[in-house]
Amino acid sequence: MNLMVRTAGNAAPVIASMRREVQAIDRNLPLVGAQTQAEEIDGAFGSQRSLATLLSIFGMLALILTSVGLYGTMSQAVGRRTKELGIRAALGADHGDLLWMVLRQALWLIGVGVAIGVPLAAARDAVDREHAVRGEGRGCGDDGGRGVGDGCGRDGGGICTGPPGDADRCGEGAKGGVRVASESVPLDVN
Fold this sequence. Notes:
By secondary structure, the chain is mostly helical. The protein has four helices and two strands.
């Protein structure tokens, strides 16, 4: 049985009060897994935060490697054109014009990379979102995992969101799931 209580302020004294009240009703009925909603959500999102941090580190590493590669490519291209750039400078080409000529080549490479990469990333994101909408993503509570979102929490330990009484997403027989309702039921634990 899951019990949700809304409190104002610190929830620790309320948990202790709830333990006393439950023990007063039935000594054999333990109150286990008592935690705040913030703790439950932190537990549900812990692996996602770790994955996001790891992916951010890999993304930064990819950005550094890309920058080093672009620098190497441009350095090699400018090295090949040293004589050409020297002749242009000797004939009176402005320093800004020579710089723009080299930067134009770098911007061309960056533009081609963005033109190819952004549509591919958007397509991959659309595929991932489609799988998530259909509940095919990992971590959804239907298979006993912990997940948050529509469709999670039916049979597993997910957090089910949605209007109260929504049997399709948050059935009565949820095993260990947390029901986050749009409405609250007052409960006096004094």
